[in-house]
Write a structure and sequence with these properties.
There is one protein chain. With 356 residues, this protein is α/β, with parallel strands linked by helices. It folds into two domains: 18-121, Orthogonal Bundle (Arc Repressor Mutant, subunit A), CATH 1.10.10; 138-288 and 303-355, Rossmann fold, CATH 3.40.50.150. Helix content is 44%, strand content 16%. A seven-stranded mixed β-sheet has the order 5-4-3-6-7-9-8, with helices on both faces. Strands 1-2 form a two-stranded antiparallel sheet. Helix 8 links the parallel strand 3 and strand 4 (194-199). Helix 1 (18-39) crosses helix 11, helix 2 packs across helix 3 (63-76) and helix 10 (251-264) crosses helix 12 (311-321). The N and C termini lie far apart (52 Å). The structure holds S-adenosylmethionine. S-adenosylmethionine binds next to helix 6 and strand 4. S-adenosylmethionine is lined by residues 135, 144, 148, 176-178, 182, 198-200, 203, 226-228, 242-245.
């Protein structure tokens, strides 16, 4: 398999429908969430609004699993969430409450049957096989690269350009850059930049293959490291993170990583984070939550994803480590969100502009 080499990093290839891909990837999760809710009588109990804790208490469900299931049902449009309380949507109320039925039972499904079991039993035996994907595998990184080129890169670039980021920077670091398409695309659309990709040692040969295929080996430095453990060398005006799995990481580790990036940023520097996380609430997008539910059901442990930070939480952590100004830049489809933090606050910025 070859490195996908394209000329125009702004053009979205014709006929690419990433929404259809998400449907195919998470279609079964829709069935599973709906069917589990019917089989365990969730709609029967939500004719009047209730918090997840209240419902869990009344029904004898596990509170964390109840919250995830209810949020997923909101994402599907079958429940409504207002002020932390859930109730049936008019469809659920008119058609599903008391009479909901299913065509095939989730209870008997070897994987998704575990969701219902976790709802009533809490922690169950792990399935095994969970853990990180094999990031050092070329085919996997090529897949991530193709996904980026199918619209995610172009949309990210647009959001960052709208914020004027590339007119403020000369040197950037792509943290967990993997295949390197984001770093390569930034350089190709903004010649004159200098870049670095930081990733685990086993991933760097793949990044090198991509960087060489685009003739950028002189301009992109490759740095081996673990952002949660190692000191980052160099100094930059932009630190960029895309999908390194922050929603699976405890807040204190995220704080340490953002703190380290704050340290290597110039005073005018910015941190941009793009992740599979909602803006404020995990009920906002079914696909994002389904992505988490797959890992949760695999692990069998309701507390395995105890924190599940949102984009708002990322901005809160940024402010805590010294980025006084933060902004939600937007959604990429219903799959990812992008946020940003400035190392310099508006006050400092005004002062510097006056002085120069
Ligand atoms: C899903 S891939 C994303 C690649 C690329 N950033 C993108 O958005 O397409 C996750 C990447 O993050 C890297 N990564 C995960 N944890 C990391 C860590 N602690 N330090 C450095 N890189 C990490 C992985 O090795 C992998 O290349």
């Amino acid at each position: 398999m070859e490195v996908p080499v394209i000329r125009d990093f702004r053009e979205i290839p014709e006929g690419v429908d990433t929404g259809l891909l998400l449907e195919c990837e998470f279609g079964m999760a829709k069935w599973a969430v709906y069917t589990t809710a019917v089989e365990y009588g969730v709609f029967d109990r939500l004719s009047s609004p209730s918090t997840a804790e209240e419902l869990a208490e009344r029904a004898g469900f596990h509170p964390t699993v109840t919250k995830h299931l209810l949020d997923a049902l909101v994402g599907l449009g079958l429940l409504v969430k207002e002020g932390g309380r859930y109730r049936n949507s008019s469809l659920a109320e008119r058609v599903l409450a008391r009479y909901g039925f299913v065509f095939s039972s989730a209870k008997r499904h070897p994987f998704w049957g575990r969701l219902g079991r976790m709802l009533v039993e809490g922690k169950i035996e792990p399935l095994g096989g969970e853990g990180e994907p094999p990031f050092g595998d070329f085919e996997l990184q090529r897949h991530y690269a193709l996904r980026a080129l199918a619209g995610e890169f172009q949309a990210t670039l647009k959001l960052m350009e709208a914020e004027g980021i590339f007119s403020m920077i000369r040197r950037f670091i792509d943290v967990g850059g993997g295949h390197g398409i984001y770093a390569i695309g930034f350089m190709k659309t903004h010649p004159g930049l200098k870049g670095a990709i930081l990733d685990r040692p086993e991933v760097l040969p793949i990044a090198r293959r991509f960087v060489e295929a685009y003739g950028l080996e002189e301009k992109i430095e490759l740095i081996a490291g673990d952002i949660f453990r190692d000191r980052v060398p160099g100094s930059y005006e932009l630190a960029f993170i895309s999908n390194i799995g922050l929603p699976y990481v405890p807040p204190d580790a995220i704080e340490a990583a953002f703190g380290e990036l704050h340290r290597v940023l110039e005073p005018s520097g910015v941190l941009v984070v793009k992740e599979i996380a909602p803006h404020r609430d995990w009920a906002e997008s079914f696909y994002q939550l389904a992505h988490q539910l797959l890992a949760l059901v695999q692990s069998g442990d309701p507390e395995w994803l105890a924190s599940m930070p949102t984009a708002d939480d990322f901005m809160g952590i940024m402010r805590r480590v010294g980025f006084p100004r933060t902004k939600f830049l937007g959604w990429i489809g219903r799959w990812e969100t992008v946020v940003m933090g400035w190392k310099t606050g508006e006050e400092d910025l005004r002062r510097t502009t006056k002085e120069t």
